[in-house]
Task: structure prediction
Amino acid sequence: MGAKSPEMAPKTAHSRDGVGRLVAVHAHPDDETLATGALLATWSESGGHATVISCTRGEQGEVIGAELAHLEGNAAALAAHREVELVSALQALGVAEHHFLDQLPTVLPEAAAAHGPAARYADSGMAWRPGQKTGTAAAPENLPADAFVAANLDEAAKRLAAFLDQTEPDVVVTYDPGGGYGHPDHVRTHDVTMRAVELAQRAQPVVLWASMGPEELRQQRRDLAHAPWAQASAQQHDLEIPDPDGDLPALANADRPVAIAVTVRPVLTNMLAALTAHGTQVHAITRSTETENATLLGSYSLSNNVLAGIGTTESYSWGRSDSEERARHLRWPRYIDEAQKSTPAEDGSSGPTGNTSTGERSKMLLTKPPWFRCFGIVVLGVVIGLIGSLMFRSVPPWGLVVSCATLLSASVLARAWAQAPGVISLGLGWVVMVQIMALEGPGGDVIIPADPIGYVWVFGGVVFVLAAMLAPRSWFRDDEFVGS
Ligand SMILES: [Zn+2]
Result:
């Protein structure tokens, strides 16, 4: 049973916002939410078409809670239950289409002839490497007979490639070569996806890998250890708080530059609902009670009972060397920030490390000044410089008070709207206009004469602009202005 109708949605023209098609390839039900939940929700929210392909049904997973504990070890029953959880999670994320890889609506005549009926891909199971409950997973000692890791790579990849060719997605997203945290099915999912993109004839998608900077993850862990709400959750559910200096999973080990950063806050409610839907896999789902300067929006735990954080951004690196260039021609949804200067990773290998660490890069992304707004702000500065200079002498001192108050309000607005570059733009437009108005006209007239009230307008204005520029960042809630 697929989560949605097994028919493929036809490839149609782009959505109302011009956002195209995205295909996310995952190993098990729950990974779509854990690894790419914010991207899927944001994509769907903007009217784009999102498809999730799950390679297995997660039948070897551990089960949280006594109520459903009987499902653990019963592969068929757990698979059926997790499919139901998946349907509800996909609904929460707004995902339009879902398929299991072994049921993709693409029948390959040559594969069918060569291999008989389509193979079924089963969860391979996993074991934590000794002493690495927060680090890296490994293959278990006894693999199930139809384990996905043992499936023929090209056969699985051709199945996916045919689907990609029929739907021609703009973006394909999966894990990094380390499979996120090393689960053998995740590594296999990565390999199959990358091979499928290679085999595809028509589809030429941007490829993204879910990844995270090591410093970003360590900072999240430090914040988890200090946030009172997270500590309360850890205590209530008897969870281990991960060591910020401990082992890091593969997704945070390579330090690839962040290519795409998705702002999580606008879709946090969807993500929490999707996490909650995966009740046998995720528990202790907690929303942060902090509203100011929060680096974490919430927390949860998997069956390993280790506290994990929900960060303010979900980051991705380029999965192919041509992805950055292709990405430039795509329309990205609001709340997805594309870094223009990151270095693309080579196919199938770790990307080169840029000079900027991933953590810093994603902070830059969050505060990246929207330059196109700055042009409008320059014009605003010119207008305020012109009208203010014409009226500051009228009805003393009220003309001056109104001119100064207008400039101060505009400076604050510019800072909130486009950070410091916004204030600089406003100041630039205003200064240029005031300089012009202070020049002597053809008849010897000067609109801003060198008298006390003229000095207040010129130098007072400079003080107002500087004040708005130097005010503490915490006074301005940048995220409320994103995309407005
Ligand atoms: Zn998984």
Remarks:
- Residues 390 and 447 are 7 Å apart (CA to CA).
- The chain has two domains: 21-361, 371-476.
